[in-house]
Amino acid sequence: MRALALEYRAEAGGKLKRWLDRLMMVCSGLAALIQGMCMNAVLSTQPDAMADILSLTGFLSGLGLVAVYLLMACCWVRWWLGEATVPLARTWCWIWWLVSPLIFVVLLLFNLPLWERCWGLLIGKLVVLMAAVAACLQVWGLWRGNPLLLLIFTQAFVAMIFLCGCIGMYLWILVDKLNIYQSGVSQTAQVFILIGTLTRNSAPSRNRIPA
To answer: DSSP string spanning 28-48?
Structure first.
């Protein structure tokens, strides 16, 4: 639906164009919401993934991801469109910057073991420290009003939080359900695929044109 709205917007009249804008906005929000809900199911330790997708934590995860996307979008709009959008975009940057950490703290309390595992490793502590530095630089960027630096620091903060989750999940594809060893094929199959790949890549091409 987003693709349809974007494709037909240039050819649409004024009234239809407004409806297509609304359609694209709603579908974009739903896409981000569903991504966050599915991400919560992966990180959850509950046995029923579908029930966890439809739970309060799943809904909060979806809202959190929507808030993060909106924060990055406001940063990008400020940087790309310039002075004409600065007052409104700056206000929304502050709003979404306050909303996204608040939701993150609530979700952290719901998934505390994941973050405790991250904090228990040296690399986890380093990444958490880098996330804290990025968050402080975000405030500095908001205060100084530099849109490019704010966009960079926001993306750095999101990347550090993502790395924290990966470190806390290490060895698990689905937390407490499936680890990387259980999800892999047998050693015999891996060796067979490796030999086949190496043989295929090293074989001379019959269609090669002579110099």
So the answer is: HHHHHHHHHHHHHHHH---S-
